[in-house]
Amino acid sequence: MTSSFSERHPTVEELIEAIEGELDKSRRADVAAHLELCWGCRHKHERLLRTIDRYAEMAASGWQSDVDRSRWNGFASRLAAAAASQAPPARRISPFAGFSLAGAVAALLAVLLWPVPIVSAKEAMARSAAAEKAMDLRSPRAVTVQRIQVEANSRRAKGKVWRAAAHRPRWQPEAGGDAALWRELETLYEQNDLDFSRPVSATNHAAWVAENGAAREQVDQEGGYLRIRMRSADAPEPGEIVEAELVVRATDWHPIEQTWMVHGDGGTRQYRIVETALEVTALTPQLANWMDGIEPATISELEVTPALDPQETREPTLLEVPAIPVLTAEELNEAEVDALVAVHETGAADRDGARVERQAQRVLITTYPEDPTHLVALRHAIKTSRPIEIVAVEENDLDHPGPPTVNVVPLAPQPPLFFDSLVQMVGRERAANLVVSAQHAALRRVLVEVAALADLAQRFPDAARSALSPQAAARLNRLGEAHRQAARLAWAQVDANSRPLLAATGVELPEQSAAGALCRWDGTATLLASSVSRLEELYSRGFTALAGGSPDLGQISPFNWRQEIVGLHANVGAALAGKCEP
Amino acid sequence: MSANDHSEPLSLSGLLFTDAEAECGTLEDRITQYFATWREALCRYLQVILRDQGEAEDLTQECFLRLYQELRQNRQIHETKGWLFRTGHNLAIDHHRRRDSHSQGTVDIGGMEIVDERHLSCEESMLHNERIALVRAAADRLPQQQRLCLQLRTEGFRYREIAEILQVSESTVSEGIRRALVRLMKDLHDQ
Q1: CATH topology assigned to domain A327-402
Q2: How crowded is residue A355: how many other Cβ atoms within 10 Å of its Cβ?
Q3: Which residue on chain B is closest to A48 by alpha carbon?
Q4: Which sequence spans correspond to the domains of chain A?
Q5: Taking CB atoms and an 8 Å cutoff, what residues of chain B touch A396?
Q6: Shortest alpha-carbon distance between residue B103 and chain A (Å)
Q7: What are the residues whose beta carbons fall under 8 Å from the beta carbon of B96, sequence distance 6 or more?
Q8: What is the dihedral of CA A392, A393, A396, A399, to 10 degrees?
Q9: CA–CA gap between residue A249 and residue A257 (Å, rounded)
Q10: Structural contact between residues A367 and A378, judged by C-beta atoms closer than 8 angstroms
Q11: Burial of A495: CB neighbours in 10 Å, binned 0-12, 13-18, 19+
């Protein structure tokens, strides 16, 4: 029953996106096709273009373009004065020499004291590789233990990698992780000629760039970290890495996170490898034997290797780098639940158009508070220390769109199918109009709530929900039930209005069946949203002259209208009552 | 690149400028070239924040001098135009705050000049000025962030670049531009 995009009126937002080139190609073509046919939308589109023209004209007029060049003359002398001052020498990487443990610690201290710079991707990578090499130049009696966490979609594994000069590197996966993920990662490193004993490594990253070339590179500073992104210049084969991202600590250039985007038949896969801790400890003879003694040292073999006896690693830790706070997918899920609940409970979604957006390491709430107290209330509602950030956009107009809804935009005028009958039945046109308006308002309220349900179901599919803590899952369910309950209340109003409206059309709604199994709030959310939207369209066609939405409404016969509306009433009523199938 | 590649001290020469950039002559020549290319766009943007053409001009020069200092210290800067606008934005916001704290909010909003009118007749000029004044009044009623988004968009930045300059998300930029256009459209066409 859904119409194609070109058949319905684009919203103002879509028109702006089309003008801005932000719509994807097919949708842009749909909008263009629609504008060919629809005078109303073309008029709106032209008004937008004129608005942009007028703003651009005003912006340019704020400037007397080069009429008076003399005011810039001062710049040449300021630049000359700056050039005459002593230029500071460029920083260079210091070589690290010596193989003693004290030398290695001193070298590390030296890099720790360097300031946080703004650098190119190549420079950051070179410095990080140098810091890595400095770690390798330590005493032959030291061993590095790197704790690693690997994530690929919802899969996860943890483990340690042991490295010591002149000894075989060893992996030690933790029990309970996804063993297949380790094998996959090992294959990935082998296939791309990378050193698997250095899972998070600027040297590996640089080797990949040297092999593939970088079509695009970028360095972003995020607090005390630098994120180096590079994309391959070559067309990838399946299994090849197409994009690499390395996060290094800006204070000492130590790499702490590596992400590989891998080309595959079914799309791009992402592997995120995070160093959660790093220790340097003394290499005991037992440890050396353990590292060298078992052949071959591959992951599949190590899975059956008993974990190292803790007694063997009780040597004092010489250097411990604190683990960085890396948020897991579960923590982000829970932060998202918190944010959604806060936005709902404070009414920020309806009142201020607040939206919740999940990002890489935080959850962002963007809100348009009409009153500063709304923002205070929202902040107060987030009681946890989770990474939720609120961005309040200054806003004093009242035209915010609220939750995403289906717009009923007037199409070419068509006489209503049943309005005259309704007027005859209730006696006065004004009274008939009131009933129709009340029905539209109630349906819109139902639609807002079921759209919120569909949004929740989309954000938290089964896999994500099963990974939530019991408390977060309970909060999410309460939020879902609150939306369903609000939708039910609004539906009761729709139901009450429907009796006189449908009586005028000759339809008698059957009583709701009590049969049917109870289903979860998210079970039919998306379907429910489209059903309510269609109901809204049908009521428009039945009782108003401005039939909106799908053009098939212009052709619908009274018989089909009745058939469809009865079916939709039954389905929506059953779904909101919590019954999946009658 | 293997680990052994770094056994010698690393030289950063060659990483700092591309060949194409090096051909442009001295660093001072490059800065002068950048200045001639972007000074007006940057100054227009800073005027939106500062509402004072003199101060906007002064900060515009300051931005290019900072760019010079950065490049002279061998810092690599990608997307020079974005860097200039980001630096200008931060300088202007700081400047605006300092000025407001001293002047208790007495801001001169009449500093903008009107287009060169030499080629317009008296009547055309009057109509033109009136039209510009209407748009400016409507734009001045926009929340500042929406106005900045719109101004940066007018200067040719994409949403991602605007988000980087203003330090907000892309969706906020998209929303800001949408709201600004809808509101301007209402103000300008529904009168």
Answers
A1: Alpha-Beta Plaits (3.30.70)
A2: 20
A3: B185
A4: 5-56, 101-325, 327-402, 407-582
A5: 143
A6: 23
A7: B49, B50
A8: -110
A9: 9
A10: yes
A11: middle
Nearest alpha carbon to residue A170 among A189, A200, A197: A197
Cβ <8 Å between A51 and B181 = yes
- pLDDT of the residue at A208: 84
User: Which of B5, B70, B135 is facing A58, going by the closest CB pair?
Assistant: B135
Distances, alpha carbon A141 to alpha carbons A102, A138, A144, A335, A493, in Å: 12, 8, 10, 44, 78
Neighbours of A471 (CB within 10 A): 10
Strand, helix or coil at B120?
A: coil
User: If you ran DSSP here, which 8-state letter would residue A70 be given?
Assistant: G
Per DSSP, the residues of B152-172 read HHHTT--HHHHHHHHTS-HHH
User: Nearest residue on chain B to A67, judged by CA atoms?
Assistant: B116
pLDDT tens-digit map of A10-66: 888 888 888 877 777 777 888 888 888 888 888 888 888 888 888 888 877 655 444
One fold for A101-325 and A327-402: no
Chain A residues close to B182, C-beta within 8 Å: 12, 16, 399
Phi and psi at A388, nearest 5°, equal: -110, 125
Q: How many helices (H) and strands (E) does chain B have?
A: 8, 0
Contact A311, A183 (CB under 8 A): no
Confirm or reject CATH 3.40.50 for domain A101-325, answering yes or no.
no
Helix (H) / strand (E) element for A47: namely: helix A39-61
Query: Using CB atoms, which residue from A12, A95, A393 is nearest to B9?
Result: A95
Domains of chain B: 13-109 (1.10.1740), 119-191 (1.10.10.10)
Q: How far is CA A253 from the centre of its chain?
A: 28
Q: Looking only at Cα atoms, what is the longest distance across chain A?
A: 100
Which amino acid would we find at residue A90? Answer: A
pTM confidence score = 0.36
Closest partner CB to A83 (pick from B28, B39, B74): B28
Q: Cα torsion for B65, B66, B67, B70, to the nearest 10°?
A: 130
Q: Cβ of A366 and B40 within 8 Å?
A: no
Run means of pLDDT, 10 residues per run, chain A, 582 residues: 56 84 78 83 87 83 50 73 53 33 44 48 76 64 80 84 79 79 86 86 84 72 76 77 84 83 82 81 72 54 40 35 56 84 83 78 76 75 69 49 42 72 79 80 84 84 82 84 83 82 80 54 71 84 66 77 86 71 39
Cα–Cα–Cα angle for A340, B159, B163, rounded to 5 degrees: 65
C-alpha to C-alpha distance for A6 and A28, rounded to whole angstroms: 9
A118, A120, A133 ranked by CB distance to B3: nearest: A133
Contacts of A43 (CB under 8 A, 6+ apart): none
